[in-house]
Amino acid sequence: MTGIEALLEILASAGIRFLFGNPGTTELPLNDTLARDPRFQYILGLHEIPVMAMADGFAMASGQPGVVNVHIACGLGNSMGMLYNAWCEGTPLIVTAGQQDRRLRFGEPVLDGDLVRVARPWTKWAAEVQRVEDIPAAARRAIQTALAPPTGPVFLSLPVDLQMESRASFDLSPAHVLDRRIRPPADALRRAAAVLATAQRPAILAGSRVTEAGGCEALGRLAERLGAPVFAENTTAHGRIPLAPRHPLYQGILPYWSPQIRERLAEFDVLLIVGMNALRLYIHQEPDRPIPAHLRLVQLDIDPWQIGKNFSVEVGLIGDPASGLEELDQTIATIQDAAQREQAAGRVATWSATRRAAQARLYEELAAARDECPLNALGVMGALARVLPASAAVVEEAITTHQNVLERLGTLADPAAHFAHRGWALGWGLGCALGVKLAWPDRPVVGLLGDGAALYGIQGLWSAAHHRIGVTFVICNNSQYRILKVCGDVMPLPEMARGNYLGMDLVDPAIDFVGLAESLGVTARRAQNADEVSALVAESLASNEPRLVEVVMGR
Predict the structure, then answer these.
(1) What is the pLDDT of residues 348-396, one digit of tens each?
(2) Fewer beta carbons within 10 angstroms: which end of the chain, N or C?
(3) 328 φ, ψ to 5°?
């Protein structure tokens, strides 16, 4: 057995069936071996951005490690933006790259580089294997480390001579993945329950790690017991939805900027922060503390680094978000008195009414935008909301268009079916949508993309056509980097205040996404109004083929 065959044995024993890659000479032993191994499907990408993003989406949707193989130094360099995204998300990726033959390395051969140092800042563990005997142990360690809490990407550098070297036998024991459902300490649970049960105006800030732990239903039960509204992370870190979007206590995301966050939270007296980084801000504004100082904080997270990192907490709970929420709910149930239960029920009614009123206003805004031509953001999102099935999964990389309309309306039934940026390295959304579809082949998947973001990973359309991955891509084409103009106005910057935006307009020539998609093998159409958007998206979803809808938007 060769070293690369031993690696594949360990991966197969862990249930891994997809490998995402773009090969070079130092990866040829892997591709040669995969050609005769029916246990794996190799998903080919034309550039490392969509390759890494596909693995990322697959891992997030499936809960299994996404396994990626990229080329030595230059290929790994191309991967780094998407590796940064995975690091911010905590996605369990196993990234591998071929390394030069060790017999050449002293002579500084072509493509040689210190791959481990390149990958280390954005991985939980990075290593280069030096003995063929160690390849199975390295593979086991990679799987176990990627999946151990807090989850995250790992990296293995594999010298090409080691991949081809043979041994009579290897230790092919499978990886052992620990149960991540770690319970918070009993005393900390009692103290946290006491703080929350006595709150007069409680609120919950919840993040993606609730969803990824399977804790959405437990969060809903606890919110109802407390009568507490639930807010998700602000847009700059809002990847997954922590509570069913149709839940009456879900109040959507926090605002972008510190002053608005502070104003939104000012009415509460106690905050439970669970499964989120508190808080990942974007542009500095005063006051620089977004959480008001009067708030008493209880924080629950599987990642101890996040607890009290930026804001002092009264009680910190280290544990799995789902298990912790369940036990916190049960503990509060034992100490709540009748008056507290009655007050909580009143708060549930009040916040439910607030949610219904906000939805009614949004429906009015969407109706008013329906006939706008060229389309604005609400016109596009209203058109999508009218035809998306409740079972759909949406991957969003259209930052100034989506405006969280689908979750504000409760269009999506499954909170786990929403995927958005947590790292903000562009080009992620198109490949991520393909990975989600590979993990969930029976669900409709929509990639909602901005024109600027899509161009960073547009080569992924070829992979969609080549592997027949039935994603509907909706590209919102406003011919600009709109988010940069918004941020320039916030800072503010003098030339941008005058409308002088250098390097932010994608014009002269305009980009033809229909022609571009068709050149890569994907059927594409252009929509000029809301009804055309609805019709083309519905047609695409019914086909279960990769298709692209370019939406012409106003600038």
Answers:
(1) 999 999 999 999 999 999 999 999 999 999 999 999 999 999 999 999 9
(2) C
(3) -65, -40
Query: Which letter, b or e, does each residue of 393-428 get, where b requires 16 or more Cβ atoms within 10 Å of its Cβ?
Result: bbbbbbbbbbbbbbbbbbbbebbbbbbbbbbbbbbb
Amino acid identity of residue 215, one-letter, is: G
- Is the overall model pTM greater than 0.85, yes or no? yes
Q: How confident is the model at residue 492, as a pLDDT?
A: 87
338's CB contacts (< 8 A; 6+ apart) are: none
In 143-247, DSSP assigns E strands to 154-159, 202-206, 230-232
Q: Using one digit for the tens of pLDDT, what is the confidence trace for 70-79? A: 999 999 999 9
**How would you classify the pairing of strands 230-232 and 393-397?**
unpaired
Compute the distance between CA of residue 548 and CA of residue 542 in angstroms, rounded to an integer.
13
Give the type of residue at 396: E
**Nearest-angstrom CA–CA distance, 520 and 26:** 27
Q: What's the topology of domain 3-164?
A: Rossmann fold (3.40.50)
Asked if 186-355 and 372-552 have one fold, the answer is yes
Give CA angle at 420 (281, 56), nearest 5°.
115
Q: What is the CA radius of gyration of the chain?
A: 24
Residues in CB range of 368: below 8 A, 6 or more apart: 378
Alpha carbon distance 543, 550 (integer Å): 17
* Token pair in block for residue 183: 């319970």
Go through 185-201 and write b for each residue having 16 or more CB atoms within 10 A of its CB, e for each that does not. eeebbebbbebbbebee
Beta bridge partners of 299: 273, 316
The amino acid that residue 71 corresponds to is H
What is the Cα–Cα distance from 258 to 251, expressed in whole angstroms? 18
Residue 269 contacts residue 200 (beta carbons within 8 Å) = yes
Please give the DSSP secondary-structure letter assigned to residue 16. -
Q: Which amino acid belongs to residue 138?
A: A
Residues across the chain = 555
CA of 216: how far to CAs of 206, 221, 285, 290, in Å?
A: 10, 9, 32, 25
Q: Distance (Å, rounded) from C-alpha 274 to C-alpha 149?
A: 15
Contact 467, 60 (CB under 8 A): no
| Residue 450 in tokens | 């901005």
CA separation for the pair 493, 491 (Å, rounded): 6
Overall CATH class of domain 372-552: alpha beta
Tell me which residue of 364, 384, 363 sits closest to 375, measured CA to CA.
Answer: 384
Q: Is the pLDDT of residue 411 over 90?
A: yes
Residue 204 near residue 224, CB atoms below 8 Å: no
Q: Classify the C-alpha dihedral 90-93-94-95 as positive or negative.
A: negative
Q: What is the pLDDT of residue 236?
A: 86
Domain spans of the chain, in order of start: 3-164, 186-355, 372-552
CATH superfamily of the domain spanning 186-355: TPP-binding domain (3.40.50.1220)
Q: Give the residue among 553, 544, 509, 506 at the shortest CA–CA distance from 523.
A: 544
Token pair of 296 as six digits: 């008493």
Contact (Cβ atoms closer than 8 angstroms) between residue 249 and residue 229 = yes
Within 10 angstroms of residue 555's Cβ, the number of other Cβ atoms is 11
